[in-house]
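Extended Data, panel c. Modelled sequence:
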Amino acid sequence: MRSIADKLARVGRATEDALLVGMLAAMVLLAGAQILTRNLLGEGLIWSDQLLRILVLWVGLLGALAASRDNNHIVIDLVPKLLPARAKRGIEILIFAFTSAVSALVAWHAARFVIEEYGYSQPLLGPVPGWVFQTIIPLGFGLIAWRYAVYTVVAAHATLFGPDTQAHLLEDHEPTLRADARDDGRGAQ
């Protein structure tokens, strides 16, 4: 069972990375083509500005999703550095829970927005309606909320029961959490 979960995690990670790299490459190539056609032909590609806006939205949310995968979002950690390890872990649990709750709230309202846009079915890029491209907003924030909910549970388990008793939980999750659990100050090697 664990090997299936590992394979799914690897496929998910590879899919996220491939989408991110592919869309970023498409953005660079499309922006370069737009510059060349405007300078050489006197007019650009009519549809490219709209597609670039869509790609910026997708790359931004896929980048945030990739950052949440490794728990690499921007943090201000001056106060936690001054606290003992157990208090630091408590603050980390609160931050994970808060991040999960805010991301879930954004996902909920973004889903409501996309449903409303579906009712209008306004075309955004050619005949394709805008809601199709906007689905990345609730999906991205929903996945971020899920990841931080998992981080909350894993960090709470490590705080309550120690890092050694939660090794089976961490094997299926991010490497940063495994390192944090080993270095929580109680059982550091």
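The radius of gyration is 21 Å. This feature is highlighted in the accompanying rendering.
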